[in-house]
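#onboarding

Welcome to the new folks! Below is a worked example of what a typical request in this channel looks like: someone posts a single protein sequence, and someone else replies with the predicted structure as tokens. Don't worry about understanding the tokens yet, we'll cover that in week two.

Example request:
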Amino acid sequence: MTTATLSPRKLQMSVIGPILALVILIILGALMNPNFLSAGNISNVLSRSAFIGIIAVGMTFVITAGGLDLSVGSMAAFVAGLMILVMNTALPVVGVGIPIVLLGMAVALAAGLIAGLLNGLLITRLGIEAFIVTLGSMGIYRSLVTWLADGGTLSLDFTLRTFYQPVYYGGLFGVSWPIIVFAIVVICGELLMRSTAFGRHCAAIGSNDQVARYSSVRVARIRLLTYVMLGVLVGVATIMYVPRLGSASSATGLLWELEAIAAVIVGGTALKGGFGRVWGTVIGVLILTLIGNILNLTDLVSPYLNGAIQGAIIILAVVLQRERKPGQ
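Example response:
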């Protein structure tokens, strides 16, 4: 079985590069605004990173196995809308309390799992390109949440939202729940990638699926599981996100797919598959979040250009990953 190999120089740069970029951003942020390193701003940055970070961990496995998912932002919007709709509908019967929150969480996880499963089945069983499947599902989920909201916004009942808010604003020992959940997901993802057959099989499939198949790796099953895992993690991220604003609309999760993919690539995971690094994805998430945070704290560049900067970062990261051919 063969896996993607990197030269020592490339491996060293892929490890040092993101870390160095993160350090430089922290220094620049501290120099530009004295509030950058305040406890409040750091907590805000980490909490905001959690949503994209949780999704990006799942995206790391998908991309490592040679796949791609463009639908995660729209999927999150649809899951959030469905979750809010079910909780509001059940409120007169169940009442405000832990049971209705658990119901909403179960709906989010189930919806994410089913959405990921459908993407995975279309890709692995019908043989449709991942780009086409997830591009189509991106439009479907965005339209569905717009339909559920009747073109407006789905809002969680005020009393229910007040009861649910501690899931985002509460925490342990001063650390908010989104950060704690993000940390747990990262630890589990890193162990899964580095210490299990599943992680090794993802890398093998992304490197060469034919060789992996000859080595008795169940290629279709592994790829399907990566999309299911990503869908479940979209559900987890949505569970943490809904109590923050208590609403969902067609604008919810906009460009989350761009941020998740950018974080994975910036963190050193090969876009063509065969090599993935969960801890690198965490650094990529922090880099992208810090860029947005610095733009908001300073007047250097308009924060409306954040998406353009992220797009440029993806292109640059892919260019740096390209292998030079003889004579170039």
